Amino acid sequence: MQDSIEHKLKSQGYKITAQRKTIIKAFVKAKNHLLSAEKVYEWIKEHERNIDLSTIYRNIELMMNIGVLKKISLDNHVDQYKLSVTNEHHHHIVCVSCGKSEIFKECPVSLIEKSLINKIGFTPIEHKLEILGYCQECTRKSRE
Amino acid sequence: MQDSIEHKLKSQGYKITAQRKTIIKAFVKAKNHLLSAEKVYEWIKEHERNIDLSTIYRNIELMMNIGVLKKISLDNHVDQYKLSVTNEHHHHIVCVSCGKSEIFKECPVSLIEKSLINKIGFTPIEHKLEILGYCQECTRKSRE
DNA sequence: CTAAGTGCAAATCTTTTGCAACTTA
DNA sequence: TAAGTTGCAAAAGATTTGCACTTAG
Fold this sequence. Notes:
The structure is a homodimer.
Chain A: H1 2-11, H2 18-30, E1 35-36, H3 37-47, H4 53-65, E2 69-73, E3 79-83, E4 91-95, E5 101-104, H5 109-119, E6 123-134, H6 136-143
Antiparallel strand pairs in A: 1-3, 2-3, 4-5
The structure holds a DNA duplex.
């Protein structure tokens, strides 16, 4: 995991710095818990040396660009992130209490709400579904 | 619409001020387009008198609290809002190009992605689905 | 009249950016 | 050594707050 991400960075011409390693490590350790930039910063400050927040933001962006990190914005003005190595389409079940998230690949909501979630003991209290794309008019305009 | 919202405010002991009326009007006029606080501010500045941004924020929060406004956070650090009078469970299809949104009540994603969306000419490019609730552990803890 | 609401200015909070100094390959 | 990266400080952008003044009921 750590290695494969570093390899991916290296293969795209990015340098492997101590800071980068540490930031990746923080996400690997977090497993499926969502981390905000601030949380990453604090984890690193506690477990390793200090890394500037701006460095963390820059590397989070980098990791998103190379496709190993996914952003999840809830409604609280703090972006959260987690590693996402698979290319398969999937969604996340996020615990609003502890921040832990799990991946599910069976997309339709009906499956989710009924069996899938109950099967793992998750108590859904709310779900957000936004479908982004182009409406009829904008689809037409973009063709012109 | 305008009246029913004002009535709801009044019935809960809030005063009907000129500013409040105008803010509601902006959302009513916007129909199903999402509006950010800034957009509301600009619309009002253009069509009516000036209202301070803080007043707009305070009233947006108020309207969310009484359940007539819904917040939709996309990934761009700008909260957007739209009137939501129905109590029925529903989701939104949001055009990333023009900001127009539509409600759909048939929830399962499979329906959405297949027929429903194509039926209305919407071109989905991405969809966000977050299910919020409590994971197994937190569910257990909350029972204790 | 008086509690609620507004405008203004300043504060907060998250995220971004410019730049000089420092590393990695 | 050169291009990429970092830390620091400052900026930016969205949202919130304190407070004196104003207004709806």
